[in-house]
């Protein structure tokens, strides 16, 4: 049992760091016939003086095989584990699993099964509430945090084969004192407290971006294409998504609940995600810029990417609303990451196809300079898309895993900065202008461009 406990805690905490989920808030969770030895409820960055409350409305337990032995409710309960103490708890579980004599369990304050280590009794875990202390009418306990750190609220079941049913309400918050009066509850973790202002600022930037884009398109109506309208819609939904994210974080910070703004966030996030990948595919195929139609294989990419984006956003809702307490939460995260990777890979094909088609055309149509400019544009676009997706999917997740909990907002700033840079690059290079430099080339450039195309013939 010791090894399973170590793996369960480590995997849950790691996924909480790597996968974006809803902010910690007031939550009520129903646990039904759950046999897991470890259930991670929340992870929250506390300042000194913060409080963690766990309330249990009802609690029941049963053996998977009735009558095999008695159940001790004193070996089931809630603890807080700080980030500083987690490695020690993990070491205890590993040592207990490797110690066949049982001495490791005893050294760690073991209990429960004779061959296992009980996190509930570890000296490195801060006790909160045991099921033995929960009367039929329910019970509640509040722990005040003395040492600032990131803490995990964990339910530990130290008996194999025991299923637990309970209704749990968690309320985690910091206490902000202003002017010597009563403290004000702040339900955002320490590392996420700047989020309302950050998201509001990002939303304002994209609204200004949208106004500028609409003005540019209205001035150049004769050169505006259908893709420019789609790009404007992308800016609109990005701005609305970030505005809802700001309201969501603001309400959570003050009340502990998002008041429905999370629903609006998911809706606008869905349209933004679909439009982002659609714009990448349409630009990558040269639609509206190089040709007024899509080939069958390009339509197939869109028919794959758009349904995958629908699935990905639905999974994101499940992940955000259920949290790590769900039994299939880890599986949902794995599916989410898989779908996201497939979407990211799929959008590269149209760009590569366009680059190859332009290279083949350069050998036959006699317009070397124009094709060289187009090739330069699409290669640059390809590299920027690769860099953007790689940064926001991989580098940021790795950065979050090692970042101090007090500065988790820095990851959000990094993601939004990269996104804005990507949008600026795409919109600037594909803006509506007269005599687009990628489409209109002077005759004097043809001879020099022909030699460059011959040298460039081996790429892609």
From TrEMBL:
It is found in: Membrane. One of its GO terms (cellular component) is membrane. The keyword Transmembrane helix applies. The keyword rRNA processing does not apply. Residues 194-436 form the GOST seven transmembrane domain. InterPro entries: CAND6-7_N, GOST_TM, GPR107/GPR108-like. It is a multi-pass membrane protein. The chain crosses the membrane at residues 197-217, 229-251, 263-289, 301-319, 331-353, 381-403, 409-430. Residues 1-24 form the signal peptide. Keywords: Membrane, Signal, Transmembrane, Transmembrane helix. Residues 27-174 form the CAND6/7 N-terminal domain. Its main location: membrane. This is Uncharacterized protein. It comes from Urochloa decumbens.
């Amino acid at each position: 049992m010791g090894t399973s406990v170590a793996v369960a805690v480590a995997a849950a905490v790691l996924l909480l760091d790597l996968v974006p989920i809803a902010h910690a808030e007031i939550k009520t969770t129903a646990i039904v016939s759950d046999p897991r030895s470890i259930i991670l409820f929340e992870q929250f960055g506390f300042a000194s003086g913060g409080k963690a409350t766990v309330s249990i409305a009802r609690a029941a337990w049963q053996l998977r095989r009735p009558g095999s032995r008695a159940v001790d409710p004193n070996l089931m309960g809630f603890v807080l584990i700080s980030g500083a103490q987690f490695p020690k708890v993990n070491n205890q579980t590993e040592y207990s699993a490797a110690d066949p004599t049982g001495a490791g369990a005893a050294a760690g304050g073991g209990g429960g099964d004779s061959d296992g280590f009980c996190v509930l009794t570890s000296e490195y875990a801060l006790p909160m509430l045991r099921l033995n202390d929960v009367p039929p009418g329910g019970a509640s306990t509040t722990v005040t945090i003395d040492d600032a750190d990131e803490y995990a609220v964990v339910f530990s079941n130290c008996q194999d084969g025991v299923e637990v049913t309970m209704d749990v309400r968690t309320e985690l918050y910091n206490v902000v004192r202003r002017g010597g009066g009563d403290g004000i509850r702040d339900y955002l973790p320490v590392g996420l407290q700047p989020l309302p202002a950050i998201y509001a600022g990002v939303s304002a930037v994209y609204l200004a971006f949208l106004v500028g884009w609409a003005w540019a398109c209205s001035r150049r109506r004769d050169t505006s294409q259908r893709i420019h309208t789609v790009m404007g819609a992308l800016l609109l939904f990005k701005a609305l998504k970030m505005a809802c994210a700001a309201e969501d974080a603001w309400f959570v910070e003050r009340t502990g609940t998002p008041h429905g703004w999370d629903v609006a966030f998911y809706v606008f996030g869905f349209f933004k995600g679909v439009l982002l990948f659609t714009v990448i595919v349409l630009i990558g195929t040269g639609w509206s810029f190089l040709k007024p139609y899509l080939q069958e294989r390009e339509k197939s990419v869109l028919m794959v990417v758009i349904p995958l984006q629908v699935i990905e956003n639905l999974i994101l809702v499940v992940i955000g609303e259920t949290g790590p307490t769900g039994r299939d939460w880890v599986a949902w995260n794995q599916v989410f990451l898989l779908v996201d990777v497939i979407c990211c890979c799929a959008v590269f094909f149209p760009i590569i196809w366009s680059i190859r088609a332009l290279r083949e055309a350069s050998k036959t149509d006699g317009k070397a300079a124009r094709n060289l400019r187009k090739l330069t544009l699409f290669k640059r676009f390809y590299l920027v898309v690769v860099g953007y997706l790689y940064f926001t999917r991989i580098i940021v997740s790795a950065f979050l895993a090692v970042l101090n909990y007090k500065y988790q907002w820095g990851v959000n700033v990094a993601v939004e900065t990269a996104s804005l840079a990507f949008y600026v690059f795409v919109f600037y290079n594909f803006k509506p202008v007269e005599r687009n430099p990628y489409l209109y080339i002077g005759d004097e450039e043809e001879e020099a461009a022909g030699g460059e195309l011959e040298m460039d013939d081996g790429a892609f």
